[in-house]
Amino acid sequence: MSNAVPASPDLRAFIAGLPKAELHVHHVGSASPRIVAELAARHPDAKVPTDPEALADYFTFTDFAHFVEVYLSVVDVIRTPEDVRLLTYEVARELARQQVRYAELTITPFSSTRRGIDAKAFMDAIEDARKAAEKELGTVLRWCFDIPGEAGLESAEETVRLATDDRLRPEGLVSFGLGGPEIGVPRPQFKPYFDRAIAAGLRSVPHAGETTGPGTVWDALTYLRAERIGHGTSSAQDEKLLAHLAAERIPLEVCPTSNIATRAVANLDEHPIKEFVRAGVLVTINSDDPPMFSTDLNNEYAVAARLLDLDERGIADLAKNAVEASFLDEAGKTRIKDEIDTYTAEWLAP
């Protein structure tokens, strides 16, 4: 990984074997260069590089807007249910490699249905991959359907329809989100769609405060009834907001390398994760769009360990934060947290 941070071999080995959960990782954004190249070769008119090495340069971003542009070009190489199934299973394979026991994968179905993939076929493809991954890889996947904010209210209507129509809603769906650009995309306008999703039993997990100020986080909490905040980077600028997040135990889905790659934060040493922890906010560690940012979840834990000066027990506590903040049932949470404790105790045993 080109964005890997220094860490002792022992600490990296501990992280590599540590059971984990991941809560903020995007479906398309998790496509490895190998898979993107394979999909691009199937659809050469998409103008995405078919050479995995060339994709490294392609995935170098000047700012958040450029990232969105490149991201959408990758979306354009996913055109058939077979493409969707391949991508989903390969993402699960990569998560399993990193000892991820449970992941809530953010999926943007509107991006696929608007490109002509039948909605039912799309749902069948992700569900088939989910069930196969759990059986064959041991990784449990759940879905967050998110609105692509740049596509406007049309996308919000279609996303909530797909998420709440009993004929289409996939078994693995647990939450409803909002992604894409924040600038020029005010959160309050999405309130009716989140209200419908919440009424249908879905949990609210919008992105907020990634590229805009803390007011966007307040809007996500007030209008969208957010139970977790995607990124929330600018929350550190508002002490009252930090106190609220801590008091209400509203977790932040922190993605350090992503924030640097999209220029949301200037450099890792300026990342506000330390302020979050100091304020008592429940912090979870995530990879966001890992291949696009030349990272993976293991590396993000190494980043966090350096920034927070953590030893093995501290890293294990971070891993348990993600489990606790997940929408897994209590028995499932207990099982993974117990596995983390057992692994850590065995690692540290003399």
From TrEMBL:
Keywords: Hydrolase, Metal-binding, Zinc. CDD domains: ADA. It comes from the Bacteria. GO terms for molecular function: hydrolase activity. Its EC number is 3.5.4.4. The keyword Zinc applies. Residues 19-342 form the Adenosine deaminase domain. InterPro entries: A_deaminase_dom, Ado/ade_deaminase, Metal_Hydrolase. Its cofactor is Zn(2+). It is an enzyme of class 3 (hydrolase). The keyword Hydrolase applies. NCBIfam families: aden_deam, PRK09358.3-1. Belongs to the metallo-dependent hydrolases superfamily. Adenosine and AMP deaminases family. This is Adenosine deaminase. It comes from Streptomyces niveiscabiei. The lineage of its organism: Bacteria, Bacillati, Actinomycetota, Actinomycetes, Kitasatosporales.
